[in-house]
Amino acid sequence: MKHCQPIAFAVLALCWTGQVYGDAAQGAASLPAEKRIVETASATIAYVETGDPDGRALVFVHGLPFSSFIWRDVMPAIEAEGYRSIAVDLVGFGDSSGEGYGVLDQVNHLDSFIDALALDHVTFMTHDWGAGIALIWASQNRDRVAGFATMEGAMPPIYPRPAYDEMPDRIANMFRSMREDEAETNVLENNLWLETIMPSMTGEPLPEAVVAEYHRPFPDAESRRPLLEMSRSLPIGGEPTDVTAAYSDAVAWWTESATPKLILYAEPGRLLRREQAEWSAENAVNVTVSRIGEGNHAVQEENPAAVAAGLDRWLATLGEPVGN
């Protein structure tokens, strides 16, 4: 694999997109380190790295419609010693590009990324559908996982989602809008994820520079295709069948594996609330559940210090990695 030298983030943005969306450069200045890139067989993957370069791998995986930028205030606040913190941009998000944007494509990209960096005994910190992607990877690479943490993640018992007629109307209509007949208009042309869904993920509006940074990779309809493909590949009502099967295997790993697991939840929360966290505490092995205070979905934006503190407390309890 070809490794590239670190590149200043704002410069990389200008080079790849030809423009910076609004005040993106101002928001990007708060990254804890310069972005780096690694080439795999099917993608150019961007990531941010901090901590001990010889330490245990702690991989942060974002969800929709975010990027590694969402971890910018969490990573520097991690005080646990001996960790190499790595926040990846999923392909089609942030500054990563390549072929294939669906859930299983992203699992394969994550696998290539982990191999390219020669990571082993990986501990994950995950959010939204970054959790689902990392969960599938973990179930397929059991001996390479040292721990799995999530917050507001696409986890059991929430996924796999049931059929539309078994969901609340509000949730069913949201998924229909991004998967069925009008999906291309809604997601590509009307920018559903950035203009409608993202603003609902925090209690207060995000700063303009932060909003601009999340908009930056998606300046036009075609650039938003990763959002559409991801939306259409989420396991709902048994479809797509391959994703549903892979995710069901991942649920089995989550519930049966002795690998240490952590669920952080905020209140009121949005996706993975206290009752879902308690389901895992009752139905899965070796799960720690921790309330970290107030927050909605993008808790990293609302209270990053609480996220880091909750993760830190758990990291301090981990012994030698045991994959299974």
Structure description:
The N terminus is likely disordered. The chain is α/β, with parallel strands linked by helices and 324 residues long. The two termini are 28 Å apart. The chain has one domain: 3-Layer(aba) Sandwich (Rossmann fold). Helix 3 packs across helix 4 and helix 5 crosses helix 6.
Keywords:
globular, alpha/beta, 324 residues, 19% strand, Rossmann fold, 10-stranded mixed sheet
Indicate the CATH topology: Rossmann fold
CATH class: Alpha Beta
Helical amount? 25-40%
CATH superfamily: Alpha/Beta hydrolase fold, catalytic domain
Tally of discrete structural domains: 1
Distance between the termini: 28 Å
Protein structure class: alpha/beta
Under the CATH scheme, the architecture is 3-Layer(aba) Sandwich
Give the helices and strands as they follow along the chain: EHHEEEEEHEHEHHHHHHEHEHH
